[in-house]
Amino acid sequence: MSFANLARLAREPALRMLLVNAGDAESLTWSGLVQPLRRAQRAHPGFTLDVRTLEAAAREPGDGWHVALLVADEQQPAPQADLLHAALERCRGAQYWGGVGAAVLWLAEQGLAAGVRIALPWALYADTEEIAERAILTPHLFELDGRVLSCCGGAASIDFALTLIEHLLGGGTSAVVKEALCIDRVRGAEERQRVALQARFGALQPKLSEAVTLMEANIEEPLSTDDIAQLVGLSRRQLERLFKQYLGSLPSRYYLELRLQRARQLLLETNHSIVQVGLMCGFSSGSHFSTAFGALFGNTPREERQRKLAGA
To answer: 148 and 118 in contact (C-beta within 8 Å)?
Structure first.
């Protein structure tokens, strides 16, 4: 779903947002999110930012938020189950809700991201064996799918916050905040965590990073697993072992999901026909595209396109 759908909240006379800090207040993930939003609150009198600790969110009453986010740095261990459950339930009461950083993993582990695209930090992909079959893991910086917002955290938190400000509070407030923070360019949701991937595997597993980069660069004309293995200088079996160990998937499956995620993005965010989208993502057969898409997302490309039209 496009972030432009958030713009309908801009008509609210008093827009309220809840941020729940479940991690280190000094982390880049938290500061990158809360500082732009605090500046936005000062610049926009109709916007209220409510900041709470995990314990306060879980135990203190409150509702009526339009957006609510649980935030934690990717290195933060999961909190006590009762606190986490209560805080997530508080966030879910908002019109749009979700997580940033490690909190994205936590909400997925709670079964709250079934069939939903989530932007999980690459550093946490090793912990996704149980959730990968339910949630849809994307390599993007942040996502909005239905009511669920997610951001990989770290430096992307700044881009995420500024994107929220742009759509919720308008270009004027966004310009004020960007000028105050000396930010010239805001990365879009569709940009990938490639730097994070290279940071995680670049030194230890450069072949894996190289293989994923090849896949990302060859969406329209997919390479075979044998071709990728040859290009990165590994045997097919070695490549499959790397993908299984570090990404929890076979190369062919990872590549297919990468192409289908791209197809879903194109269906929701462009006006290309369904046939064109299939071809742009390497599917020469319309029936194969529809079958593979339905197996991953639970609906057909046509139904996905109807989601866009309904949102519009």
So the answer is: yes
